[in-house]
Write a structure and sequence with these properties.
This protein is mostly beta strands. The protein has 2 domains: 145 residues, Proliferating Cell Nuclear Antigen; 120 residues, Box (Proliferating Cell Nuclear Antigen), CATH 3.70.10.10. It is globular.
Length: 281
Amino acid sequence: MKKVVNIILNRILLHFKFCPGVINMLADLTKICILHICPDKLSFILFGNPESGTVSLWCESRKENFFSTFEMEGLSAENHEISLQLSLEKVSSAWKSAHHAEAMKVKLSNKHSGSLKVCVKLRFFSGKSLIVAEHFPIQFIPTNFWNEMQELTVPYSNVSIYLPALEIMKKFVKKLKPVGDHLIIEANQNGELNLKIESESLNVTIYFKNLENPPLENDSEDKDPEEMAIVHTDIKQVLHLITGIRGNPRRAVVHIVTNRIAYFEFLHENFSLKYIIPALP
């Protein structure tokens, strides 16, 4: 059963169809993120640093995918947005506890340092009801940092290839994990994707063939379609991603920038997810 949730922040009011799946998925991928609220969309953001080996994430949904009504007023006409940092782990816990609730209300307050108040209305078989409230700290992002919140874009990639079914890919990556920590991802524009583990005692390669390739923006006639692009990754980061993805995305692509990053894109019916895993040094 879909529930209606109210979110209030000063003059912001959101009435949206309760959709815990996205929140729970994101909580599996990252404990803390930035929530960027715009008049037409919401973005959940995690900025990593490739130099330090941390991942980046950008999950976005247009308002009509979640909201029955949507009203908001930002700080000003020029800054018609709101950005805050919150714990997805705590919010997800509250979402799960409200699974059988009759109603749920979420209120954002800017008192003191900011807080998120989640009120859940539970109704018992006797007809009596109980309202349970939880408070979670949040941190508002100052406007001078908003310019840094640019959507992740596909860089100059050497190869782009559609992924095989995620369940199959997850099964094989799990089997490779005990062999070693470094997962080599290599692919070409001829529909071939290989997952490799190389260790002193054992070398294992999983071959996927006849996959499709989206066109490269920087493609040229001189490029050999069988030339492999290679990136060495932390197998734990790859497994964490494909294990955390929920449902069956309509589109799943990896863009490989040789020796730099593996850039994953997942397109679902109601949201899109971009995830960057940096190459190992």
